[in-house]
Amino acid sequence: MKPLFARLSLLFSAASIAVAAVAAPTAPDEVIKSAQGSLQTDISENKAKYQTDKPAFYQMVDSRVTQYFDTKYIAQTILAQNYRTATPDQRTRFESAFKKMLINSYADALLQYADSVKAEVQPAKIADGSDRATVNTKLIRPDAPPVAVAFDMRQKPVGADWKVVDIKVENISLVTSFRSQVAAQIKASSLDAVIQKLESGQQVVAPPAEAKP
C-alpha cells in the first residue's frame, strides 16, 4: 500500500489545478485550464526554496488555493444540521481550522508530486441561466491509470467568480465523505471537541478509500 501522503497528493493535485489568478468572471473550464500550470509553475521555479522554507510554501498554497474555493459554503455543507445549531464563533473556527488542516495535510505531498501530474480539461457543463457548473478533468499520472476528477462549481451571485464547492474523484464526493466523518465525530463527542482537534493540528478526516490511487 502506498504511503498516505502519496495517496493524498493526487487529491490535492486535483484541487490545486482549480485555482488561478484570472480576471473575473471567467468560464469555469477556463479557470481550470489557466490554473493547471499556475501552481505547478510556481513549485517548479521555487521547489528548492519551498523544501527548506515550509511556512512560505504553506502560505503560497493557501493564497493560491483557498480564494477560489467557497470555504464557507463547504464548511456549511460538511457540518450539515450541526451548522444550524453552531454559534457564529464555532462556524468561523471550524471553517478556518478545517481549511488549515487540508492545507497542512496535503501541501508536503503536493510539493513532491504536483509536477508529475498532468490534467486534461473538458468544457464546462452549465445549464442555461444556472449558477452551477461541472468541469470534468482527467489526471494523467506516469505509470498509473488516469483518474477522473470532476469539479463542482457555483457562481453566487450571478456574475461573480466561479468557485469550487466539491471535488469528485472517480465519482466519489470528497465533501460527502468528509461530512459523514465529521458528523460521526461530533456525535461521539461534540462540535467543540472536533474544532479543538482541528485547531491542534490533528487530522480528523481522510479521503474516501475509493478516491485513493
UniProtKB/TrEMBL annotation:
Instruction: Look up and give the organism this protein is from.
Output: Hydrocarboniphaga effusa AP103
Signal peptide location: 1-23
Q: What UniProt keywords are attached to this protein's entry?
A: Signal
Query: What is the protein name given in its UniProt record?
Result: Toluene tolerance family protein
Traced from the root, the source organism's taxonomic lineage reads: Bacteria, Pseudomonadati, Pseudomonadota, Gammaproteobacteria, Nevskiales
